[in-house]
Amino acid sequence: MTAMPDVVPAAARAHTEDLGAFVSASPSSYHAAEEVARRAEAAGFARLDETAAWDVVPGGRYVVVRDGSAIAFALPPAAGATTPFTVLGTHTDSTGFKLKPKPTTGRDGWVQAGVEVYGGPLLNSWLDREVELAGRLVTADGVEHLVRTGPIARIPQLAIHLDRSANEGLTLDKQRHTQPVVGLGDVSEADVLAELAAAAGDGVQAADVLGYDIVLAETQPPRAFGIGNALWASPRLDNQLSTHAAIAALLDVAPDDLTGIGVVAAFDHEEIGSGSRSGAAGPFLEDVLRRVSAGLGASEDERARAFAASLCVSSDVGHAVHPNYPERHDPANHPHAGGGPILKINANQRYATDAHGAARWQAACAAAGVPSQEFVSNNTVPCGSTTGPITATRLGIRVVDVGAAILSMHSARELTAVVDPWYLSRAMRAVLAG
Ligand code: ZN
């Protein structure tokens, strides 16, 4: 027998390798928002400052960052007061751990970092990995510094000799069992904050740091593996996979080909309910869309007409059928890895998809030549939710919930098919280009 040849299209492999670069550049939501802006600016988008006046003109392309969220948008040359918006909604944050105040702890010769659980991570997946500290520091001069330390911490699992029942059912206390080790020595002489200040460069000292938002981030690079290298392992696929697919789609559409005002809205704080000034439940997207409408000279009536004709494709990762747990899915709807993007449907509006939104998405997939499949929950296994219903409720815009099928959601290292991020991005592009 010979090894199976590479059956993944070259364009799909290139897309997902680029996703790997995006993920590697984005250990925190702040880095992810900045990476969206960096890519947009490199493609000619103008960076906007929320505290300054905006001069938004037809044919223009812009990007704005608010904390860990980014919104990029492109106007067709013929954009006017009632031109609808086509929004690709995603999120930049991932579940895990956040650094606590008084971050340097430890005992018995170990220096540790004090961390708080962020969202709903699979705690066991974070054990025995070398992780980094990453996020932002704010110094006394008010300047924000993006920082990352490289591998510096590890949450060590207890040896099986000291817990013979570990394989019958591992129970982790969220406080006692999750504090990573970062070094050896006397805790009173160690300073986690000094490591972060050093990572900021520019001579920043720990004493200069008056505030921080710092997370733990997996450091093992994303990679293809498996027969034919058809599988893709990576941290933060939830939901940098969608954020990367969306910005790649927007950057790939020429302004002349946009059917509406194309928007990528990548929100922070989805994993903790979206309730923040930069989250989907906050006003960021509405603020931006209203400022764009105002820039186009729209009256309130014309702005409302534009919103009424708009569409948001809300993309987040979903569950492929796990071969070891197929019974967790609906018996008739079995999304397969490699089977194309999933359309998410829920009777209780945990996903915002309705008949019109579903039809728009299916038409986009067909136009892009991309296979599509549906996700709906088994009635005894309720699904999670996304920013989709929040955006629909917040703005009254029609929303359709979609995503890419993965395994191990909320693990420190998730799994998808190499081809699926590319399929998703191609379908998104078709939504933007009509
Ligand atoms: Zn998500």
* CATH fold assignment of the largest domain: Aminopeptidase
Helix tally? Answer: 9
**Mean pLDDT, nearest integer?**
96
> Structural class of the secondary structure composition?
alpha/beta
Strand content: 25-35%
Listed once per kind, the bound small molecules are: zinc ion
- Give the number of domains: 2
Low-pLDDT runs = none
Task: Label the overall shape.
Answer: globular
**Compute the gyration radius: what is it?**
22 Å
CATH superfamily caption of the largest domain = Zn peptidases
Biggest β-sheet strands, sense, barrel: 9 strands, mixed
Within the largest sheet, what's the order of strands? 1-2-3-13-4-14-18-16-17
Structure description:
- The protein has 434 residues and is an alpha/beta fold.
- The protein has two domains: 10-94 and 235-432, Aminopeptidase (3-Layer(aba) Sandwich), CATH 3.40.630.10; 96-218, Aminopeptidase i, Domain 2 (Roll), CATH 2.30.250.
- It is built from nine helices and 20 strands.
- The chain has helices at residues 10-24, 29-42, 192-200, 237-252, 284-295, 300-308, 355-368, 388-395, 419-433, and strands spanning 46-48, 61-66, 69-74, 85-91, 96-107, 110-118, 131-139, 144-148, 181-184, 209-218, 223-225, 231-234, 261-267, 311-315, 318-319, 342-344, 373-375, 398-403, 405-407, 414-417.
- The strands form four sheets. It has a nine-stranded mixed beta sheet with strand order 1-2-3-13-4-14-18-16-17, with helices on both faces. A five-stranded mixed beta sheet has the order 11-12-20-19-15, with helices on one face. The protein has a three-stranded antiparallel beta sheet with strand order 5-6-9, with no helix packed on it.
- Strand 5 (96-107) and strand 6 form a beta hairpin.
- Helix 4 (237-252) crosses helix 9 and helix 7 (355-368) crosses helix 9 (419-433).
- It is globular, with a radius of gyration of 22 Å.
- The termini are far apart.
- The model has no long low-confidence stretch (mean pLDDT 96).
